[in-house]
Write a structure and sequence with these properties.
249 residues, mainly alpha, Arc Repressor Mutant, subunit A, Four Helix Bundle (Hemerythrin (Met), subunit A), two-stranded antiparallel ribbon, elongated
Length: 249
């Protein structure tokens, strides 16, 4: 009996080296601002040429894991991650996934609903006057007669960002940054013609009132009301899109 095997593909030496150094960073053996050995020292340790080491370091730099400094005290150092950059990268990736059709609008709405319920519960228990003032300020802006659709959508994002901030949980704030900064604007872009501004404002007022009162049950009810309404508008938007894209007979 003969067996046919696919060709074996080996990982490049450059990649293996970059992965080993990456693992040292991720598991904490190398910490932020630690200086890496020189190219010559790394070449000796891995028993490879300096150009190979240089390529491996380029891989790590492209992943924002290391950076170089010039001068007498220069060298290659482990780069401390910046939360703003990581959030921006996640937002960009999420936006691309939506544009490529990897995320269905129904799934986005469902995930957002569940996550916002969690945030709402914590916000009702932990909100500060600063968070309440931020949400109230956005509602006031949304009531402006000369507010454009674009401005209204941006304010809507800021309102929900303030709600997430009110949780006081940095992990939730980080996770929700993708939902708030990337997925919610996509939702707004699709349904803004089908939603009623006044209804959205009233829903925001209910959410704010419940959070201000510290009433978890009413907060959940208000959030569910808005998420259910938005889902209906998604359905209308998708039906409209399908009708306009359908070939004429």
């Amino acid at each position: 009996m003969s067996i046919t095997y696919e060709p074996v593909v080996t990982t490049s030496v450059t990649r293996q080296i970059s992965e080993k150094i990456r693992e040292s960073i991720l598991d904490g053996r190398l910490k932020a601002d630690d200086r890496l050995p020189t190219e010559h020292e790394l070449a000796d340790q891995f028993n490879v040429s300096r150009p190979t080491i240089r390529e491996a370091l380029k891989r790590l730099a492209a992943q924002n894991l290391i950076h170089s400094r010039r001068g007498p005290s220069g060298g290659t150092f482990v780069r401390a991650p910046k939360e703003e950059e990581v959030r921006a990268n996640l937002t960009t990736a999420a936006t691309l996934l939506v544009s490529f059709g990897e995320f269905d609008l129904t799934d986005i709405a469902e995930a957002r609903h569940e996550l916002e319920l969690m945030c709402g519960r914590l916000a009702a228990e932990r909100r500060s006057e600063t968070h309440l003032a931020a949400m109230a300020a956005e509602i006031a802006l949304q009531k402006s007669d000369d507010f454009s659709d674009e401005d209204f959508c941006a304010s809507d994002v800021r309102f929900h960002r303030a709600l997430v901030d009110a949780t006081g949980n940095p992990v939730l704030q980080f996770v929700m940054s993708t939902v708030i900064e990337a997925l919610q604007p996509v939702e707004n872009m699709i349904i803004f013609r089908f939603r009623d501004r006044e209804k959205i404002i009233r829903q925001h007022e209910k959410i704010l009132k419940a959070i201000k009162a510290g009433n978890v049950a009413k907060t959940e009810k208000a959030i569910t009301e808005q998420m259910s309404y938005l889902r209906k508008q998604f359905a209308k938007a998708q039906a409209h899109r399908q009708s306009t894209e359908a070939p004429s007979v």
